[in-house]
User: What shape does this take?
Amino acid sequence: MIDGKRVLIILPAWNEQDGLPGVLKEIRTTLPGVDTLVVDDGSTDRTSAVAAEFGSPVAQLPYNLGVGGAMRLGYRYAFLHGYDVAIQVDSDGQHDPAYVPVMLEKLKEADLVIGARFAGQGDYTVRGPRKWAMSLLSVVLSRITRTKLTDTTSGFRASNKQLIEFFAQWYPVEYLGDTIESMVGAARCGFVVRQVPVAMRERTTGTPSASPIKATVYLGRAGLVLLLAMIRRMPKHLKALAPRRAGSGRVLTGQ
Assistant: This one.
């Protein structure tokens, strides 16, 4: 519980037995009032056992579905257990839980808060086609969400209660669905998106995919995902879940 709100940190994890102990310890030390849920995304190592040993509830998928599938299960858990806020934190140690209070403060004026890597804090950089793709996505998604966004593919994000319900009913599991398409879908249904600057740390486990070929493929696939997100029809009942706010045709009803 933080400021009277029940906060759940969702950690999608695929073969993260080495990184999870440190991440869970840091969350417990930095944010003693929050709960955690590790979603084991079909791991073949001891991810589930390690998470349980360190005191976290675990939801285990039988097959590897990717981050989108893991987060969809995490949002359904958060909705069914009545959480006010759900925060996605990677299990590789890149996301610093010390930024969570800043994200919670920003949620007072938004439904979805992105922890942005390229907004003035830290020295995280990308180059080549991957940078081009991220820049293009930031320009397009800034127009869609009507706010300046600099890091639309960040997996460090916080959702309020209304958006938890929205994502519990609709959350794309395809490639980049957990970042680009989920944000576009939420914005098209009237949810407010904002970002806060964060410093990204080096991952403690795993290897980043940064070869020029992979980056070029990423550029093409990101454009395709964005196109599909823009043309996909959103169910009408989902639009009714967005809180109404003054000045935008909607009035804030709280979290």
Notes: The longest strand covers residues 7-13.
